[in-house]
# Entry
Amino acid sequence: MTDRLAATLASDAPVTAVAGVSSARAAALSSLGIRTVRDLLTHYPRRYLDMSRLTTIADARIGENATIVATVHEAIVKRPKPKLDLTEVTLVDGTGTLIATFFRQPWLAKALTPGTRVSVAGEVEFNYGFKRMTVPFLDKLDADETAHGRVIPVHGATEKVPASQMRRLVANALDLATPAYDPLPLDLRTKYRLISRNAAIHAVHFPSSMQEAAQARRRLGYEEVLLLELHLMRESIRESQGSPAREHIVDGECMKALIAALPFSLTEDQTQAIQDILGRMAAPERMEHMLLGDVGTGKTIVAAHALAAAADTGTQALMMGPTEVLANQYASSLGPLLDAAGISWTLITGSTPQAQREAAIEGLASGAISIAFGTHALLEDSVACKDCSLVIVDEEQRFGVDQRAKLAEKGRGADVLLMTATPIPRSLALALYGSMTLSYVRQIPFDRPPRTTRVLGFRERGRAYDAALEACKRGEQAYVVCPLVGEKKPASDKKKRNEAQEEDAFEPYIESDADMVGDNAKAAEAEAAFLQAKTFSAYKVGLLHGRMKADEKRRVMEEFREGKIDVLVSTTVIEVGVDVPRATVMIVEDADRFGLSQLHQLRGRVGRGKLPGEVYLIAATSNDEALARLSAMEKTDDGFELAEYDLSLRREGDILGNRQHGASALKLINVVRDAAVIEAAHQDARAIVERDPQGQTDAVRALYHESDAMFASEEPALRRAR
# Structure
């Protein structure tokens, strides 16, 4: 075996193959997701300490960020309050003294013994006669890491494997797994002027300059996306094998009748999306398509054309939404159009009467019913189609991977259409759904009146309720949205929830029927009662939340649509599927607890008719960063622009989102900054798979091996049923 081949295969070895990694240390590394040599090699530095850009304590400016190398003079633990450990580390460098403060990390006092060399980075403050840093980044340095002119990598570490030790382990892994074969074909390296894999993997961990580190990250970032795209595309091919695709009729009588029954003209975006989808449905390959659109852009009518194609083909289709409110919306908006086109349909939800449910199930089994709208109830084993050729999942991000797959299993080889109103920029969509084809609808179907959004502090909230009162006087309606209309949850729950929102703007907190806990329902009733008695005493106040029974929710929504309810106090259950033209004012309490994407979804409920909409976001915080984030809602009504902004605030890293896809794949790519890289890698991966799907050539076989190895332990990002 050649040295290069041995080094290449070493990447797949367990991490214990690396010198210095005992079984105990392997267990500690496992907590960071490091189980193989490859994992250790791709445990890239979080940042670099550029020793040529250090400052002394004396020269560090108050109010500015600084990086300082100093020696620990002492480290002591204080307890100013019960259950609050505060560690103060006094640092000296010959020019002055700096005190670094850490909360709830008492172990630091033992780890940072006098004489220890460390680097600290953070904002410099001045209090009680000393320069200080509060919770700065701190890294212990070896004796030979203090010379100026060096670039020191800072890897993610743990208490049992500190950063300095992590550097040594990475260096040992590099000795074991290089020089390896380069999986990236020469033509791609030449096309983009990329350095070799061996040079890149060394330079990313131990660069001689920041410029060299940037070149390494550029090479490895492109490779990362390419391997991900190859994985997604090949996963889709593997799971579709053995499932014959259906070539749908897309110009039949039902389609013509549907088009003739439309009471409005389609936008250019809708027309293009319909052409994209019907073209895929008519092709001999199985369709896996995603339709992405901003709030109110008319995705449902696009889906109706796909349903008509299934009916014209003599087959059936299932369309699933996350809530009964939304499923009922399908029935009320699309049902009359399907009736006009001569297409039979039914509705199946958790509250469908038993007799009606049995008739619907029998009609699907016999083929007498062509289309079924529904909720999770469609996933039940009793719901079986005679010949299902199309499944549509609306608001797909609200369903788990297994749920989407189970719906697809209702039809062997069925075409799949996923829809979402969460504005996902193309770069992120390619990273999440690289194996799928995409269509975007951005245009509003008709000229809607303007909708304004204003952010108000808690003490200004009276202005929002004044606006809602004025709307009621004009015969209009209003929403009051609360994130938790009930008892306060423990601080730890609140913290976790806020952290989750900060980490993933596209995975906002979603209320389910189980979210309301304890006496929250009673507290919600009390809130609605208070508004009824005080603020809106002359008007009817209604209540809608996730703990209500389905028929009760349906009754409340019907009364709101009919104008019998003037003000609806609600949780996020009204985020999608609620269309009330005379609802013109929305007040969102504690708006800072929502992601921008979810706030945009919510405000899409007002201004849907001929009257302008007003949205008031009540902030319960005075935090400048949180208020700046909310202010973006005032500046634009474009969901995709907001999504780009939301993404720009996120850390580079897990863009797949653990909660949605069970994968944490891309470590070097930022979907805003690196959109061009993602687009290029997607196109290159598509060309490779189409040219050599089985990996017949050596170059492509090496790429496929690397892609399979990289994702061997990952759950597929979007599984589909065969």
Summary: Residues 72 and 91 are 5 Å apart (CA to CA). The longest strand covers residues 65-81.
